[in-house]
Structures are given as structure tokens and as C-alpha cells.
């Protein structure tokens, strides 16, 4: 009797969870830290450029050291979440691009890690609170009292 009850409970539990994906794994978000700098952007940099020109090409630096204002660091790291793993995206180890200035112009660039040739697009969120189309926010604002 007890074996039949246990077998029935197992069958019911299996049927109840057949539609669940990743039942034994928690949902994880994508962790994107820093700025994704491409090799194409680094190739545009030339010695003698002003800080404004460098900022135009690479964007604002992630780190500007107050003790060494002649160095800008652009770091990037990516840890894939649930949907990125499903899309086949791998973890991106720490990458760093350092730009050094001397006499108010760029002197050199150091690259630590392999930079991608072009920007890599990440999978979109499947969370309905995050996922919106361009027309949805305006429609949602019109519905507010």
C-alpha cells in the first residue's frame, strides 16, 4: 500500500513538473560589467589625440584614477545568465583597455585580453517587466490615471 502511494506521488510530481524548464536550476540574470570595447574602436585611436577625441571613440572611461589622471581604464566582463547560456553565449573573462596620456594628448594604448572585432549582441530579456516595444511605454503612460 505504501509503495503504491509513493509511486503515485512520484508520478503526480513528474506530471506536475513536465512543463517546467530548468526545474532544478534557479533563474540567473546576465551580469554585464563595464563597457564592451571592440578592436575596431581601438584601431581608430592614434597617438596625439585629445582626451575629447578618445572619449568620442571609446566613451567615458570606467575608471579614472585621481592619483594618476593621465590613465583611463575601460574594463569589461560578462557572466551569462539563464537565457544567454541557452543562446550559447560563453563567459567573457576580464578584458581591459588602458589609455595613457602625456602632455594633454594620448601617448599609448594597452590592451589586456582578446577584444572582439565587432560588438556582440546579448539575448533580450524574456521578463515581461523589462521587455517592451517602442509603442508600449507610451500606451502604458496613457492608461495611467
Q: How would you characterize this protein structure?
A:
This protein has helices at 2-16, 39-44, 51-58, 82-86, 135-143, and strands at residues 31-34, 63-64, 71-79, 92-102, 105-112. A hairpin with a 2-residue loop joins strand 4 (92-102) and strand 5. With 145 residues, the protein is α+β, with helices and mostly antiparallel strands. Strands 1, 2, 3, 4 and 5 form a five-stranded antiparallel β-sheet that branches. The chain has a domain at 29-118: Beta-lactamase Inhibitory Protein, Chain:B, domain 1 (2-Layer Sandwich), CATH 3.30.1450.10. Residues 131-145 have low confidence and may be disordered.
CATH class of the domain at 29-118: Alpha Beta
Tell me the number of strands. Answer: 5
Strand content: 15-25%
Order of helices and strands: HEHHEEHEEH
**Low-confidence spans: pLDDT under 50, at least 5 residues?**
131-145
Radius of gyration using CA atoms only: 24 Å
* Annotation field: number of helices: 5
> From the 3D coordinates, which CATH architecture of the domain at 29-118 would you assign?
2-Layer Sandwich
- Euclidean distance between termini CA atoms: 60 Å
- What gross morphology would you assign? rod-shaped
Q: How is this fold's topology laid out?
A:
Elements: H1 2-16, E1 31-34, H2 39-44, H3 51-58, E2 63-64, E3 71-79, H4 82-86, E4 92-102, E5 105-112, H5 135-143
Antiparallel strand pairs: 1-3, 2-3, 3-4, 4-5
Amino acid at each position: 500500500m505504501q509503495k503504491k502511494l509513493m509511486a503515485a506521488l512520484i508520478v503526480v510530481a513528474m506530471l506536475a513538473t513536465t512543463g517546467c524548464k530548468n526545474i532544478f536550476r534557479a533563474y540567473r540574470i546576465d551580469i554585464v560589467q563595464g563597457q564592451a570595447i571592440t578592436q575596431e574602436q581601438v584601431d581608430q585611436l592614434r597617438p596625439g589625440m585629445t582626451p575629447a577625441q578618445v572619449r568620442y571613440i571609446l566613451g567615458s572611461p570606467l575608471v579614472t584614477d585621481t592619483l594618476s589622471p593621465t590613465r583611463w581604464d575601460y574594463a569589461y566582463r560578462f557572466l551569462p545568465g539563464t537565457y544567454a547560456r541557452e543562446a550559447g553565449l560563453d563567459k567573457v573573462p576580464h578584458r581591459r583597455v588602458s589609455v595613457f596620456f602625456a602632455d594633454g594628448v594620448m601617448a599609448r594604448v594597452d590592451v589586456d585580453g582578446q577584444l572582439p572585432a565587432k560588438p556582440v549582441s546579448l539575448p533580450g530579456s524574456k521578463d515581461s517587466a523589462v521587455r517592451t516595444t517602442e509603442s508600449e511605454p507610451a500606451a502604458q503612460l496613457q492608461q495611467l490615471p
